[in-house]
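Quick log. Single chain, no ligands specified.
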Amino acid sequence: MKITVDRDTFKLAQVFTISRGSRTEAQVLTVRVSHGDHVGWGECVPYARYDETLESVTAQIEGFSGQWSNLQHELPAGAARNALDCALWDHAAKSQSRRVWELLGLPAPGPEVTAYTLSLDTPEKMQEQAKANAKRPLLKIKLGTPDDMARVEAVRRGAPDPAIIVDANEGWTAEVYAELAPHLVRLGVRMVEQPFPAGDDDMLSEVERVLPVCADESCHDRASLPGLRGKYDMVNIKLDKTGGLTEAMALKKEALAQGFGVMVGCMVGSSLAMAPATLVAQGAAFTDLDGPLLLAEDRITPLVFDEAGVHPPVPLLWG
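-> predicted structure:
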């Protein structure tokens, strides 16, 4: 089986900002695995927060032995294994003329309501963003500064009706969280994602969690779960963290068995990156697969987003 890896860049519709910085484009790696008449493909988004670069992840992919039975052990959880794992699932589906969910023994998936993310900005500009997207059922607010209260208030003024979840991206202290939490409840916020830095979040077991707290940077794969007990109520499953669909499905099953709620999220990537995650998102408490909605350009056969949510991919895209 031949493996190729290419860099692709997708322009964003507007500047996207979180507490760690801003970007104007999504840089991804596209992996293709070919054997016989079939080519499977997958996408990953190397993430600097996890010490990944386009170069380092490309080297991991190109250094893979090609022994597919060893993939889950040869490469660690992360972007490189994700692209290879998803490409392999796509190749298996095409070579057997079946869909990936059939190979997994799952029922045919349907659309899932997805969050739409509002970039971190001034309260005034975030209110404008919220007003422009006020008809969406679920908004996600990027936060992570000591003066976030004005931003949440502004978003709620701009969008009185949608459900809201917030993502602090590790940017709060215990004092900020304690001050904000009651007001988040008052404003109808349903969940807060990763308020404290991973590795410095033990205080979550000591403070009152008045609304569900979801682990993002603190949760990568099943090995993360023991350290989350008593601190988090939910886990955010992202394929670029789990290292692919195989581990993502296993993490979902184990997390639910241990009493965690499940959110399915994404990095900022194209429809190809989101496509496998739509299978994991089935029945999740929250789905955040809006990456393609933030792009000015996408794959030739993109995912469909409509009032029902994000739809599973057609075979021309993936799976």
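The chain is about 30% helix and 25% strand.
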